[in-house]
Amino acid sequence: MEKFIHLFILLPIVAFMVSVMIPKKQERLLSRVAFVSVGLQFIAAVLFLILWISKGTPILNLKEFSIYKANNYDFFIDFYVDKITLVYLLLGSLITFVITVYSRYYLHREEGYKRFFNTVLFFYSGFNIIIFSGNIETLFIGWEILGISSFLLIAFYRDRYLPVKNAVKVFSIYRIGDVGLILAMWLSHHLWHENISFLKINNVELVHHHLADNSLVGLAIALMIFISASAKSAQLPFSSWLPRAMEGPTPSSAIFYGSLSVHIGAFLLLRTYPFWEFQTIFKIILIISGALTAIIATFISRVQSSIKSQIAYSSIAQIGLIFIEIAFGLEIIALIHIAGNAFLRTYQLLISPSVVSYKIREQLYEYKPRIRNFEDTLPKRIENTIFILSLKEWNLDSLMYRYLWNPIKRIGGRWTWMNFKYIFYVIAFMMSLGLVLLYFSDKIDIEVKHQLPLFFSVFGFLIAIKAFSERDSVRKSWTLILFNHLAIAIAISFNAHFDWMHHVWYLSGVLGSWFVGLMVINYLRKREVWISLNQFYGHAYEHPKTALIFLLCCLGFAGFPITPTFIGEDLIFSHIHYHQVGLALFTALSLIINGLATIRIYARIFLGPHVKNYHEVAKRSS
Amino acid sequence: MKNTLSFDLDKVLHDLKHHLPAQSPLKDFIHHNTLHAFQQSSFHDALNRANEIFGYKTYLQLSDYRQLFEQGKISQNALDYSLIEHNSIHIKEKVLNEIFDENVIPRIENVRKHWKASFHMDMDAMVHPLLFRILSSYLDQGIATWISPFSNDGFLSAIRQVEKSSATSFFRGKHARELLHDEETSLLDLLSLVVGEEKLFEHYLFDQQFSHPGWSGMVAVLSEDDKALLDGKRIDFQEFIHFELLLEIDALDYYFGEIWSPISYRIKEDIAALFAPTLPNELATVRAIWQDAYEKTYYDEVINGLLQKTSVPHKSTPLLQSIFCIDDRECSLRRHIEQLHPAIETYGTAGHFNVEFYFQPEHSPFYTKVCPAPITPRFLIKEIENPSTRKKEWHFNNKVQGLLPGLLASHTLGFWSGLKLLASIFKPIQNAASVSSSRHMDTAASLTIEHKAGEFSEDGLQIGFTVEQMADRLEGLLMSIGLNKNFAPLIYIVGHGSSSANNTHYAGYDCGACSGRPGSVNARVMSFIGNHDEVRKELVKRGIEIPTATQFVGVLHDTCRDEMSYFDEGIMNAENKRLHAQNKAYYLEALDLNSLERSRRFVVMDSSKSLKKVHRKVKLRAVSLFEPRPELNHATNTLCIVGRRSVTQELFLDRRSFLNSFDYTVDPTGKYLLGILNAVAPVCGGINLEYYFSRVDNQMLGAGTKLPHNVMGLIGVANGVDGDLRTGLPSQMIEVHDPLRLMVIVEHFPAVVLQTMQLNPATYEWFKNEWVKIVVLHPTEKKAYLFIKGAFVPYEGIVKSLTPIQDDELLNLLTMEHENLPVMELNH
Lengths: 622, 828
Fold this sequence. Notes:
heterodimer; A: mainly alpha; 2 domains; two-stranded antiparallel ribbon; 25 helices; about 70% helix; about 5% strand; globular; B: alpha/beta; five-stranded mixed sheet; 28 helices
């Protein structure tokens, strides 16, 4: 029975690869590949369900293969099936099937017809990897695919400003979620002394045993998981990304942000439930967060005058409730709630254009000038305060800018007086210093040696900030990102027992991506008058293929699972010791920022309104 | 503070409103010339200016024209002719091959862009999202489930009230908040703060408002017409700008602290005045040459066809007569039904059928205008005794969006949604959420058409028409279409409307002559008038004798579903009942054929299936959620032919023509022609130009693709949640449209037409400035005259033989070909 899992994982991937090969003009074939493969998946899921029930609903686990193995480190692919998997499988395949059939006509003649179906299949592959994953490592692969396909679908209309801006915004929030998972993996590696599988954490005694002496670590892991789940499911304080993700064609908003993607956070919590089941503090945090989200998102939803943002916030509020249900261990109720909410929001989004004719007609016949709201019963001052706050989305959208991105940019901006040559010398010096120190590491005072990793990781972090806040030169920013990776590598090297092979894993993808990316930038600079990071250039309009190559470079550069860097990142973390919280933190922050800097470069050069306007170009506000 | 004479606020506000998109809220979509603000200039000058000032693409790209030339869609002859017309024969080589720089740096934004360029501040990002949210919330017609505490005392006053009694603020800092509450602060004070130098005020305001033309245009429209919304909101354009400036001040305070300088302090260069004259340039000439040649290629084909073919009017008593709307979508249906029987006659006229009134559906407190937009009717017709009830759609119920009801809903109804979702995809059916033309007025309901002495509505509208008034309107209708004798036993008056699902622009699909509503009430009212004994007696006095046996029947044609519904069939006499049954069969067959002809444009449809099957598929489009093109509306419209049917009857015009029946022998002095031209220029011209501009610049003058559209406050659509309102037509409506100007063709004597068109200056402007072309077909000479620079001159075109086509060949062609078809001669 376990063998069926291969089918569920491979079918969408194969369909995706076939779809990539089909010529752009073949609308019929493109849509057929998508809905036939997802339809088959749905039928298989139903059959599998019957089989699974007939066998007495066993929990299935399939250890697939190890990608990298050393000492007590084993990065392996693992699959797992239980009722949570099956609910998500049925829900996911049904909704994706419906959406692909829907989009077959809906997207007819749309410029990005092929891109749309490719991205949906890519997304669906990631979704399946997540729901079948048997350990966090496997889940993380799917998680990354989901993130990048979200970015691509939000920026589907890549020739306009807002979709691109919002895609980058959403990506930045997802990135926080990613790093939450990376840190969770790091901590749990130290907690279990192995790459733990979900099957094992079902063992109450084992979990108890490990958590008994390390309750703080347990809480930290749970919190990291919670951050990831909250980011993906748009809980406070991340909520404002969800309405802004509604930039793609309506069916893609429906499948991603109405139903599947947004409930993945809840999946993560359900999947890790046995791990934090007995951590009361964590459950209280979860309940408070869920309740706060439910109440605030409801208020925000109630003042929305646009249909899609209203649906988005209503959905966020329901997911807040779902988090509470999960915290109370009401697994079945949560699953029903998830499925119901997913269907409801998908349908509401799909029929959202009809709201005009329906409500106008309703008003035409039943016009009621002013209905009393629940809020009217509140004292005026409170009512107005809540109203203003809700209209401003409780400042959630500016929160991230205010307290995270803008300070970072400001720090980076401080060094504008430093020209690149100068910075390059400093970096070159530091790097050589690092290498020299490494060479003589035996002779360094042990106290000093312990501080070196942190020192270099902070240095790497500063480079990342510089790369992120660079306004002008693309090549400068691009190369700074490389230096950031190198600095991380040096920092980790000071830790004992470091295996040089791990650097090869980590840096191979980075160096390759950097080099090809640099070639692309040079190629473009020869053909286009000027490119900088100060505005969007939209060069994908004239250079779609180059854009694709550069996107792949960016993915490699940011540690996406297409190069060994992906494993490398995890490996690097496995060398960070328990007590090196600072090192872990700065390394993680580096990864967030360099990922952002990378995607920003891609967005600025290739996406957004085309800088040449000999053809139709949309207004920035449109 | 100071207020000097050089800056005239009222004038600037007036100019601004004039240049902003004039698009009404979604429920009233009325086609108009997108560049109406430039209409006092001639067409090509205006397009060039709009391009330089606002950066709009007003023509196709040169590469497009050259490709059309290579494909033969622009003919060599037409190009040569156009070169001569522009005195540019010497630059032919350049026209054909030279690479021009078609990038444009428009003058708009030249002042305000300095926030980013010189101050490194992203003003739009800091102001727009909040501004749009507040405005949208204020204007909201019923999306928000918490009806905002904004009062309806005007925009600023509402904001002040909410701000005053709250513990927080829309603004980030104190400064802007104080300015808001200080009622002494004038717009000029704010401008001085933000802009600085007065000479830049006008340019800054244009830059600011054109950074979000959609919302600004909506405010401009609403500030002029307080009846434009059902839930009326008072909003003043100046107050809106006032508030936007406050938000800008707040953003500046936030970004720079308390001390910052106005924008003019860092503008070193001289900025050209927005409306300074544009210099003639070669690129503009080349574009005009290509556009004229493109149009000429098609015009030649049509004029050639019209001059060669004229059918002989049928002499015997007609079997049935159908009066359709002028609408281009009825062009093919008329051809199909005529081909079914030689004694079937059809007519075309503006689809309000010369009755102008407000319609009040039963149970509704609102009146709906059902006549061309510029007319202000004095009459009201009410629907009474409507037996049907409305179905509800719980997905739109406000409660579902609430927290606890939502919890309940997702646990229960959520699964029902799943089923509905499946059903809507595999078996789409009519439901409460879709739009149906038949819902405008219930077939079984009655109407208060005849005025009873003393019956007036509260606001002074006369309820129904008196006999005298009815007779005037019937006479006007019949005379203007030239139907004053030889009546058939049954005369059908066919209004039209459209059905669609999931379509925010549904109002744009109905009858333009009925202010974007279905023409069913008008058709029914006019039929009632035609059947009225007293009215007929009155008409006899005026020289029109309608036989007693003749009866009028009101009909609604659904242009999407290709279905007809007939009103008041019960009043027919026995003989007519028999005839009616037979006629209905003709209509049914014609409708099948019409749906087949339409299907060829829907590339995803297989038109070679059986007629009934194709028609069924076409009907499905009206109820399918996933169908962004229920029908193609006015796409490909290019002609408006005003004349007897015999002029056009033998020609295949491919649904590209508005057809207005008119008999010059009945109207030798042009009395009725004036009325026709007064309607044709703004209505058909407006439709044509809206299609033109939405096609050549779908991003700035059109609404872009409709797939990501999000409904804002029930009044407009935007992309995503933070976007500006999109005006114009979505790409799905215009993608098959060829951007050609409308050519009006009138069958009459040139002198009479010239005299008539000059009577109304507003109408004359359309022709004089060549926004609409006009050609006269001389009825006796069999020659065409083109209106150029104030006079009719003989039309120069290539004469070539017409391609004759047999019915079955045509049918075959209609199933095979997706592209535009040439003008052909119909052989039966």
